[in-house]
Design goal:
Blueprint lengths: L1 E9 L12 H14 L3 E5 L3 E6 L4 H9 L4 H7 E9 L1 E7 L2 E5 L1 H12 L5 E3 L4 H4 L5 E9 L2 E8 L36 E5 L6 H11 L4 E3 L9 H14 L9 H8 L6 H11 L7 E4 L7 H14 L2 E6 L14 E6 L5 H11 L6 H10 L4 H14 L2 E4 L2 E4 L12 H8 L5 H12 L3 E3 H10 L6 H10 L3 E4 L3 E4 L2 H10 L2 H16 L7 H10 L3 H17 L3 H13 L3 H5 L8 H4 L18 H5 L5 H15 L3 H12 L5 H14 L3 H15 L4 H17 L3 H17 L3 H17 L3 H12 L1
Parallel strand pairs: 4-7, 10-13, 10-14, 11-12, 12-13
Antiparallel strand pairs: 1-3, 1-4, 2-3, 5-6, 7-9, 8-9, 15-16, 17-19, 18-19
Length: 756
């Protein structure tokens, strides 16, 4: 029976008890408190007393060690360990006493032994620690018998995150850093460029520029394959912001056709844009993530620029890489956004807190966020929500010397950590928005949630997500994920079953709607649901609608897919929202052509080298079972490992190996990604294994570049831990990756390290 164990161990002599209090009276008080909280005495001797609670009674267990008014005297008398595991009652004495024995009791006792006087050590694998709800102040390492133990030092002043967490909505919106808006000039009939990679503030720059030159038309990608979808959404957004879209009477029918998803010929759509901008002195069109915008929209805007002397500014990732419809336009000014210098990054961190961030934490937060605006914002939000940063009348400062420390991470890392604090309804809404492409009108979103059977209070949940800086809303009717980075993350970590089922529902939603060109979105949703034949059926429909609207190039692209199953033209026409061919199909369903062999055809060869002989043997057992089709044996092996919390990382790796073997790469990557995130609080040797396992999974999915980064990360952790076995395993994977890309010289060099 699994129980939660709280073990008190007397430190030093009983004569040291405060105020001459006897040890017996202190223990009696503990026993009385434990009984009142639902606990039982399970062990005692001259120096130890232990209590057990139900596994869900973590709050009662923490209350036992922190709820006493004399908690400081109490904890200074004892060291305390809190663990979870199997225990067996040996003698049930009744009246709250059940003498017991088992791994759970031994683990709690071990933690109490390695804890210092006055410390409460909690098992890192406790759900409250893993979820971030229990706050800690660093870690303590030690040995108990032959067992190596690691415990997290409980924050006795503020043990629960809910007591100190601050909503990200309290953060200010700082002034734009970098190039000044006033210095950007684009002549009529020309194209200006904003070169800015993800997270560098490009979207914010365009938003501020739009306010300075209002009214300006802001265009963002339509991620789900609707011809002219980006232009339609731009007019929907503008109408919500301005109350209505005002155009000349001659353009009114064109506007209605566009908003109704019927499409427009090039001449009519470009005239509509010009008509809308007649009320603007500057006549700016601002295109965000231009390379991902559908070609029909870009062709319209390019024609409007040259015919009606509009000013265009397009944001591109860097190096002036432009989609083909914009390449013929005369170039104007170019603005480049780069990573912030350390001083500006620290100033930005302070500005987010309205000047209240403690000076000593400025550079630390900036470094954690990678010196990028989005990274700094997300690192701050995570620090506030996790309780690492405390915000009180004295300002904003780290809760402890261990808080907000660590390596530089990208914004997606901090977003992933923040997702732990999102409740089920909010996560459902985020996943729904991610499936719908990152943006959806409220009525469309509500209909989709009904289709998937999700009962979510849209009003309350939307307010929660806006306050948490997860989504933005326009006019109360258009909901948008806060960044493309967040959208990519949500797609990556979503449960594969939910992903496939929800994309199928989305495909049916758009196919049954009253916007003819929106059936293009149904094509992409059907593809992501894994139903190629259904996608082809929808492609025939949208091809006919596009041709009727005069969008012949897009019609041909959909027809080509419907006939030959080739998505190349759809991708060239910007109908995939920036997704690559490999992202559209599950690798198990469609084998992508490649001249290089896959480096992961034998993942067990690498994974079996991750741990000791016992781990290698288990890996081989799993592979034998998979070859024999014995899935029950695999499940029994991993279930047995999960009964011991210390083996959960290995169980995840073996489950992922099983997923790779049956072609479920999405599920394998989800398991390995989550396993790596959990390993961040573990020893370097475990971090090495988690990184290498993720590298193997990425290689199996054909993502060689990402796999290489993980392999090198694992190598660094192996060297940090002096783990020669891990170092050789990492080198073996790098050698395989080098072979796959046609570099036998590098492969040979790394292979020599793998056997050295």
């Amino acid at each position: 029976m699994k129980r939660l164990i709280v073990c008190f161990r007397l430190r030093g002599s009983a004569a040291r008890l405060a105020g001459g209090t006897s040890l017996a009276s202190v223990v009696q008080e503990l026993v009385s408190s434990a009984h009142g909280l639902g606990g039982r005495v399970v062990a005692w001797n001259a120096a130890v007393v232990a209590f057990d609670f139900g596994v869900s009674a973590i709050r009662e267990a923490i209350e036992l060690v922190t709820g006493s008014p004399d908690v400081e005297d109490l904890t200074s008398t004892f060291s305390v360990g809190i663990g979870e595991g199997e225990v067996q009652v040996v003698v049930d004495a009744g009246d709250g006493v059940a003498l017991s024995h088992g791994p759970g009791l031994l683990r709690a006792l071990g933690l109490a032994r390695i804890a210092r006087s006055g410390e409460v050590l909690v098992d890192p694998l406790l759900e409250g620690v893993a979820s971030g709800e229990l706050l800690t102040r660093g870690a303590r390492l030690g040995t108990y018998g032959r067992q190596r133990l690691r415990g997290m030092v409980l924050d006795l002043e503020s043990p629960w995150r809910s007591g100190v967490a601050v909503s990200p909505s309290r953060l200010s919106v700082p002034k734009l850093v970098g190039p000044r808006l006033a210095g950007v000039e684009v002549e009529p009939g020309t194209l200006g460029l904003l070169e800015a990679g993800r997270g560098l503030g490009g979207t914010r720059f365009l938003a501020d520029f739009a306010l300075a030159h209002a009214p300006a038309l802001r265009v963002t990608p339509d991620p789900m394959g609707e011809p002219l979808g980006a232009l339609r959404t731009a007019f929907v957004r503008s109408g919500l912001m301005r109350g209505q879209v005002e155009v000349e009477p001659s353009a009114q029918l064109s506007l209605e056709a566009l908003l109704g998803g019927e499409g427009l010929e090039l001449e009519a759509s470009s005239a509509l844009v010009a008509s809308w901008l007649d009320a603007s002195a500057d006549r700016y069109v601002l295109i965000d993530d231009a390379r991902d915008v559908d070609a029909d929209t870009l062709e319209c805007l390019a024609a409007a620029c040259t015919t009606f002397d509009l000013r265009l500014i397009a944001r591109v990732p860097g190096h002036g890489l432009l989609p083909s419809p914009l390449r013929t336009l005369e170039r104007g000014a170019t603005v480049k956004l780069a990573m912030l210098p350390p001083e500006e990054a620290a100033d930005l961190a302070v500005a987010y807190t309205g000047g209240e961030l403690e000076e000593g934490a400025m550079a630390r937060i900036a470094r954690l966020g990678g010196d990028t605006p989005l990274g700094i914002a997300e690192a701050l939000r995570e620090a506030l929500e996790s309780g690492d940063l405390a915000w009180d009348d004295d300002g904003v400062a780290p809760r402890s010397r261990h808080a907000s420390q660590g390596d530089t991470r990208g914004p997606e890392h901090w977003m992933f950590r923040r997702l732990r604090y999102v409740d089920a309804d909010a996560r459902t809404l985020l996943d729904a928005l991610a499936v719908l492409g990152g943006e959806a009108e409220l009525n469309e979103l509500g209909e989709f949630l009904k289709r998937v059977g999700a009962e979510v209070d849209l009003g309350e949940t939307r307010e929660t997500l806006v306050a948490g800086c997860w989504i933005e809303e326009t006019g109360g009717q258009l909901l948008t994920l806060s960044s493309a980075t967040l959208h990519d993350l949500l797609e990556r970590v979503m449960a594969p079953d939910r992903n496939a089922a929800w994309h199928r529902n989305a495909a049916e939603l758009f196919a049954e709607g009253n916007r003819p060109l929106a059936v293009g979105a149904a094509v992409l949703h059907a593809l992501q649901a894994g139903d190629v034949e259904l996608a082809r059926q929808f492609a025939r429909r949208v091809a006919a609608s596009a041709r009727a609207a005069g969008l012949n190039a897009s019609a041909e692209a959909f027809e080509d897919f419907a006939v030959r199953g080739d998505v190349a033209q759809l991708q060239e026409r910007g109908m995939t929202g920036g997704r690559s061919l490999g992202d559209l199909f599950e690798p198990a369903t469609v084998r992508l052509s490649s001249s290089a062999p896959e480096p992961s055809t034998q993942p067990a060869q690498v994974l079996s080298a991750l741990g000791g002989d016992a781990e290698a043997d288990l890996t081989r057992q799993v592979m034998v079972a998979l070859r024999e089709g014995n899935c029950d044996r695999v499940e029994r092996l991993t279930s047995h490992l999960r009964t011991d919390h210390s083996q959960e990382q290995l169980a995840d790796r073996l489950d992922a190996l099983a997923c790779i073997a049956r072609g479920a790469h999405g599920e394998a990557l989800r398991l390995l990604w989550q396993s790596k995130e959990r390993s961040r609080e573990l020893l370097p040797v475990e971090r090495c294994r988690a990184a290498l396992a993720l590298g193997v999974g990425l290689a199996a999915a054909g993502r060689s570049s990402d796999a290489l980064l993980e392999a090198l990360d694992g190598l660094a952790r192996a060297r940090e831990a002096d783990d020669e076995r891990g170092e050789r395993a990492c080198a073996r994977l790098v050698a395989q990756l080098a072979t796959a890309v046609g570099r036998p010289d590098l492969a040979a060099a790394w292979a020599s390290l793998a056997v050295g």
